[in-house]
Amino acid sequence: MTLDGKVAIVTGASRGIGRQIAIQLAKSGARVAVNYASSREQADEVVKTIEQFGGEAAAIQADVSKVNEVERLFSETLTRFGRIDILVNNAGIMENYAIADVTEDVFDRHFAINVKGTYFACQQAMKHMSPGGTILNFSTSVSGAMLPTYSVYAATKGAVEQLTRQLAKEFGPKDIVINCIAPGQVATELFLGGKSPELIDSFRKMNAFGRLGEPEDIANVVELLVSDKARWITGQTIRVNGGFI
């Protein structure tokens, strides 16, 4: 697979899964806009890593929960690279609360980043993405399970799956593919934060292989789905979870 000549935006690319995706797409030949909200130093490190193996990348700050900043992310990418072929809507937050403890701020923050950010990035892709482009949104395999304290997070990802389905036939006439990837438990700061070793071990045992996923496991599938090898797949949610569900 090669992504030579293509330009990718990866949101939330300064760390975790997003970081690995940005690096892997660059290794396949894409020029990459490494989006970050506040972690400038980490985003610059991702760019430096890409440049060390001869790739091309640029760190672009934008808070995806704000529509005007999403618009700026796309305009700066176009100014820097001249086109947009791939959008990976990876940016997101996950905070676990029992329903009794969910505040309006918690609810609104999750939907602003996970749903609103994804939706309006897709809107910008409709305006600016080149024909033959690919959009990949991020859901979660938790949406297929029933786990306490995940209600708000899972609700946002259920919304992302539905908007992916509903947008497929809007993007089709522009020859743009849109899909959703639903990882299981991956050993990132986002997932591991605030969890006890016992809880992490219980999640490890829930899949077929008895281990947590690694960012590379997800980036490998992303690389396939944004390539020309997967152009007959659109409007789908692909679970990448080692048999968790």
Q: Overall pLDDT, averaged?
A: 95
Query: Helix fraction?
Result: 40-55%
Secondary-structure class: alpha/beta
Helix run count: 8
Number of strand segments: 7
By oligomeric state, this entry counts as single chain
| Distance between the amino and carboxyl termini | 28 Å
Q: Can you tell me the residue ranges where pLDDT is under 50 for at least 5 consecutive residues? A: none
CATH domain fold name: Rossmann fold
Give me the Rg, rounded.
17 Å
- CATH class division: Alpha Beta
CATH architecture grouping: 3-Layer(aba) Sandwich
Beta percentage is 5-15%
Biggest sheet: strands, sense, closure? Answer: 7 strands, parallel
Task: Describe the strand arrangement of the main beta sheet, using strand numbers.
Answer: 3-2-1-4-5-6-7
Order of helices and strands: EHEHEHEHEHEHHHE
**Fourth-tier CATH superfamily name:** NAD(P)-binding Rossmann-like Domain
How many domain units?
1
Shape: globular
Question: How would you describe what is shown here?
Answer:
It is a single chain. Helix 3 packs parallel to helix 4 (104-128). The two termini are 28 Å apart. 44% of the residues lie in helices and 14% in strands. It has a seven-stranded parallel β-sheet with strand order 3-2-1-4-5-6-7, sandwiched between helices. The protein is of the alpha/beta class and 245 residues long. The chain has helices spanning 16-27, 40-52, 67-81, 104-128, 151-171, 189-192, 197-204, 215-225, and strands at residues 7-10, 31-36, 57-61, 86-89, 134-138, 177-183, 237-240. The chain contains eight helices and seven strands, in the order E-H-E-H-E-H-E-H-E-H-E-H-H-H-E. It has one domain: Rossmann fold, CATH 3.40.50.
